[in-house]
Specification:
The chain is mainly beta. The chain contains 1 helix and 13 strands; from the N terminus they run H-E-E-E-E-E-E-E-E-E-E-E-E-E. 12% of the residues lie in helices and 55% in strands. Strands 1, 2, 6, 9, 10, 12 and 13 form a 7-stranded mixed sheet that branches. Strands 3, 4, 5, 7, 8 and 11 form a 6-stranded antiparallel sheet that branches.
Length: 227
């Protein structure tokens, strides 16, 4: 009985290891190709800044738009930010801290091929800020996109990523659009500068063309010293 059991264990081990070994061999000999990496094109950042207001009881309306874009004759990609308002010590959305509320939007189209994925990252060094993404579907617009992952608030990632939105294109689309409100909480005591980099990474394919376009916008808030 012991020998028979040992035989079946050995055969089960082979059934696992042989396919793994064959896959490794196929990759080494070129029978199976690794998934190609896209050609990455990074656009120069567009910057926006404001001085940090203090001792305000009511929110101040900013109402400014910042855009950055890329086009290559095949694809046209635009990342935009609409800065709405700044509220000091906001108890509703700011958790008692200062907050800059803005909307991020992406508008992209391709004449041939399809858009594969679209991700947006929010990065700031240090731990003196928090980024959170509105979840209410009435405030969000997605066209030809499916969200695969959202991380924000206290679940920061590596490389100072405070939040991210990851999506894939639905049915190999030639056009995608996203609109989503964002809250940028400043957690210090009005004594630090803040710099938030918002980066779009959009990948598309057409035949042998496989590209990732990286488009950044940098928002800076300078500390305002009390008089």
């Amino acid at each position: 009985m012991a020998l028979s059991r040992l035989k079946w264990i050995f055969l089960g081990f082979l059934s696992i290891m042989v396919p793994i070994g064959l896959l490794a061999t196929f990759r080494l000999t070129g029978v199976l190709q690794e998934s190609p990496k896209p050609e990455t094109i990074t656009v120069e950042s567009v910057d926006w800044n404001m001085s940090r207001p203090i001792d305000l009881l009511d929110p101040i309306v900013v109402a400014e738009k910042i855009e950055n874009s890329y086009t290559d004759g095949l694809a046209s990609v635009r990342l935009g930010i609409i800065v709405d308002h700044y509220h000091e010590n906001d108890k509703i959305y700011g958790f008692g801290k200062d907050i800059l509320v803005f909307a991020v939007y992406v508008n992209a189209s391709i004449s041939e091929g399809f858009i594969e994925s679209m991700d947006v990252y929010f990065r700031e060094e240090g731990n003196s800020c928090m980024v959170w993404l509105y979840r209410d579907p009435d405030w969000i617009t997605l066209v030809n996109l499916k969200v695969t992952n959202i991380i924000d608030r206290y679940n920061a990632m590596e490389n100072y990523v405070k939040a991210c939105i990851k999506t894939v294109g639905l049915n190999q689309p030639k056009y995608v659009y996203m609109w989503r409100p964002v809250g940028w909480n400043l957690l210090d005591e009005n004594d630090s500068d803040h710099e938030l980099e918002i980066t779009l990474e959009l990948s598309y394919r057409y035949g042998s063309v496989y590209r990732k376009v990286v488009i950044p916008i940098v928002l800076t808030i300078y500390a305002e010293e009390p008089v």
